[in-house]
Specification:
The radius of gyration is 60 Å and the shape is rod-shaped. 55% of the residues lie in helices and 17% in strands. Among the domains are: 83 residues, no CATH class; 163 residues, Reverse transcriptase/Diguanylate cyclase domain (Alpha-Beta Plaits, 2-Layer Sandwich); 250 residues, EAL domain (TIM Barrel). Helix 2 crosses helix 3, helix 8 crosses helix 9 and helix 12 crosses helix 13. The chain starts with a helix and ends with a helix. The protein is α/β, with parallel strands linked by helices and 715 residues long. An eight-stranded mixed barrel has the order 13-14-16-17-18-19-20-21, surrounded by six helices. A five-stranded antiparallel sheet has the order 2-1-5-4-3, with helices on one face. A five-stranded mixed sheet has the order 7-8-6-11-12, with helices on both faces. It has 23 helices and 21 strands.
């Protein structure tokens, strides 16, 4: 803050005879208010004012002493002159009475004079002799303060030692007045010097500092426009350096801000691209979650959802009966084994296309899994309920028409199960379950390939529910046990075991895995059961490993387990907790399970491969995979299903299929093991055809002893 411009105008006005003026006074008051408002200015002003007052006070102390001494000297001089005059006039005739006259005619209040050897006294007694200059004794008397003075012999005319007391009552008042004058003057000087000092400091330091402070605060509140607060430095001293540094900081901030804005724009672009990509991925995932990848038809979830929606709408309008039909292709495994999985995929796609022609709306025809399809028939005016069987016959006729595959014509055979709504169920899940039960009955029937659900099928459902309940109890009470079937190489050496799950029911005894494993798979109970199997197999393999067995332990992994994203981590923890090498464990996964979600299966298998666990494709030839899929899977071993081994070596078709599968597996770099070997003829034919390993009753039955049992077999 400088001297306000108005003050300079005021001084000019004063020179022109107009006086200080209102403008000058307002400018001065504004400047004063700015000083008071500024904390730094206020502190500096107070500090300067106090410092000047302290200096003035320090100077005042000796001045006070000097002035006091000067006053006392004056009184002493007056008293001395009065006494000298008296002695000069009396010259030898000094008496006590004459001394009383002296007191009356002067400011003396007491005197003592030695004449000869006798002291003459008048007035107040002198208490102390004093000194040559006199000393203020501060005698507290009503009549005032006294000064006592002593003159030694020989100082004056005559030889008279003299002691006198002088009335100095007025000295205190004069000293007080002196202090008041000096204090007032000091205060005025302090105020003036403070104002001048602050004006200089304000011009030299405070105003530039406050302007810089204002810029810093404004730049801080407006961080997006730092260059708006860059100013050319006005000075070449330290303040100029500070301003230059602040300008540099603002420019650097502007550079950083530009880079940040550029990065933000780039980030926004990447975010938008990522969002679009995520939306595309989400759409793809939604399509995958609702549609079958091979055929493009609705999957089971979407199919059930559409039927549920239809039933809800139909219930509002009392619509006529509708039906859910489940179609299953017969002898499809043989087609895969004979013509390859690409041919099987081609047949599935063609059947799906033909079924789609009979669906009034998208989503009412579905591939339920494998070679099973679902179709929802809705009531129509030209096709009432009584013609439902004819409609199904039309569908079967269209789907069984020959399909050209790989240069030959393949004729499809279809079994169908029908559930009519609302008689056979009022919801999609019940209808689908009943239609599937009817379809499986149709498959078992040699002549009736279309089977309607009947009420007596409820017994089968009741058995299913009882089995589910018993399975839960078995898991809780640990009613399961493992049997181990050995696997042998071409030299009949035991190279591994397969852990097979057995259920010892407390009432029914041993229950066949074919009866309870599919139910456990459907209900999800296979997950805790499967983990128990893996852990027990690892414990057993660790014990055998310590006993000297060099081989592997094979464990079956179901499709439901394979869909568990934590499966690999769980198995890794089991291996680590029992300190078993990963290559001592082999996971057998069915071909059908691998093909349900190839992408997910590939990721999980790659994690197992990275872990070091061995992988095998179980029941090879019974699924629907293509060579392209199998080539991408990181498997070490392919297992030929017993369905293809049982007819060897007499069944020519089985020979062709097995020889083809062995050749194909070797071309993929995989070893081949055949299960279900029960005769020497089967074993001899398989080994001659290049099969690497064998498993079956001929070589060893599944037993709880496992390792010891295979040792006895080898011996």
């Amino acid at each position: 803050m400088r001297w306000p411009a108005g003050m300079e105008a005021g001084f000019d006005g004063a020179r022109e005879g107009t006086g200080f003026g209102r403008t000058n006074w307002q400018s001065l008051m504004n400047w004063a208010r700015q000083l008071v408002a500024c904390r730094l200015c206020r502190n500096l002003t107070v500090a300067a004012f106090v410092a000047i007052l302290v200096i003035e006070f320090v100077i005042l102390i000796p001045s006070y002493r000097n002035y006091e001494e000067s006053l006392l000297r004056q009184h002493a001089t007056v008293a001395e002159q009065a006494i000298k005059t008296y002695l000069a006039t009396k010259s030898g005739s000094v008496t006590a009475d004459s001394l009383e006259h002296l007191l009356e005619s002067s400011r003396l209040t007491g005197i003592e004079l030695m004449v000869g050897d006798q002291w003459l006294r008048a007035g107040e007694a002198v208490r102390e002799p004093g000194d040559a200059l006199g000393r203020l004794r501060d005698l507290e008397r009503p009549e005032g303060i006294r000064l006592e003075i002593a003159w030694q012999e020989g100082q004056w005319l005559g030889d008279y030692p003299v002691r006198a007391r002088v009335d100095v009552t007025g000295v205190s008042a004069e000293l007080t007045a002196f202090v008041a004058r000096i204090s007032g003057l000091s205060l005025l000087i302090a105020i003036f010097v403070t104002i001048v000092t602050m004006a200089v400091v304000d011009r030299m330091m405070l105003s530039p500092l406050l302007r810089l402070r204002s810029r810093i605060i404004q730049a801080g509140t407006d961080a997006e426009h730092p260059l708006s607060y860059v100013r050319q430095p006005e000075r070449c001293d330290e303040f100029g350096e500070v301003e230059g540094a602040f300008n540099g900081m603002l420019k650097q901030n502007a550079s950083y801000l530009n880079r940040l804005q550029s990065l933000n724009q780039r980030l926004d672009q990447l975010l938008m691209e990522r969002t679009r990509s995520l939306k595309r991925t989400e759409q793809e995932l939604e399509i995958r979650s609702l549609y079958d990848q091979l055929t493009g038809l609705a999957n089971r979830n979407l199919f059930e959802e559409r039927i549920t929606q239809y039933l809800a709408e139909a219930g509002k309008h009392d619509a006529a009966a509708s039906a859910l039909v489940v179609f299953g292709l017969d002898e499809f495994q043989a087609l895969n084994g004979l013509a390859g999985h690409q041919a099987g995929d081609r047949v599935l796609q063609e059947v799906a296309r033909r079924l789609g022609r009979f669906s009034r709306e998208p989503g009412f025809v579905s591939r339920l899994g494998g070679d099973v399809f679902g179709l929802w028939f809705t009531a129509r005016e030209d096709k009432p309920e009584v013609h439902l069987e004819a409609d199904i016959a039309d569908v079967i006729s269209a789907c069984t028409a020959p399909v050209q595959v790989g240069g030959f014509s393949h004729e499809c055979h279809i079994s169908a199960g029908v559930a009519v709504a609302p008689m056979d169920g009022s919801d999609a899940e019940t209808l689908l379950s009943h239609a599937e039960i009817a379809m499986h009955r149709a498959k078992k029937s040699p002549d009736q390939k279309v089977q309607f659900f009947a009420s007596d099928f409820g017994e089968q459902i009741q058995r299913h529910q009882t089995l589910v309940r018993d399975l839960r109890t078995a898991i809780e009470h640990r009613e399961f046990e493992l049997h181990y079937q050995p696997q042998f190489d071409r030299l009949r050496r035991c190279v591994g075991y397969e852990a097979l799950l057995r259920w010892r029911h407390p009432a029914d005894g041993l229950v066949s895995p074919a009866d309870f494993v599919p139910v456990a798979e459907q209900t999800g109970l296979i997950i805790p059961m499967g983990l128990w199997v893996v852990e027990q197999a690892v414990v057993t393999m660790k014990r055998w490993d310590e006993q000297g067995f060099e081989g592997r332990m094979a464990v079956n992994i179901s499709a439901r387990q394979l869909a568990d994203p934590s499966l690999a981590e769980t198995i890794e923890n089991i291996l680590q907790s029992h300190n078993l090498a990963p290559d001592c464990l082999e996971l057998e996964i069915t071909e059908t399970a691998l093909m349900e979600d190839v992408t997910m299966a590939l990721k999980i298998l790659q994690r197992f491969r990275a872990l070091g666990v061995l992988l095998a494709v179980d029941d090879f030839g019974t699924g629907y995979s293509s060579l392209a899929y199998l080539k991408a899977l990181p498997v070490k071993r392919i297992k030929i299903d017993r369905a293809f081994v049982i007819g060897l070596p007499d069944n020519e078709q089985d020979e062709v299929l097995c020889r083809t599968m062995i050749s194909m597996a070797h071309s993929l770099g995989c070893e081949v093991i055949a299960e279900g070997v029960e005769t020497e003829a089967q074993a001899s034919w398989l080994l001659t055809s290049g099969c690497d390993e064998l498993q079956g009753f001929l070589l060893g039955r599944p037993t709880p002893e496992g390792y010891r049992s295979s040792q006895s077999i080898a011996r």
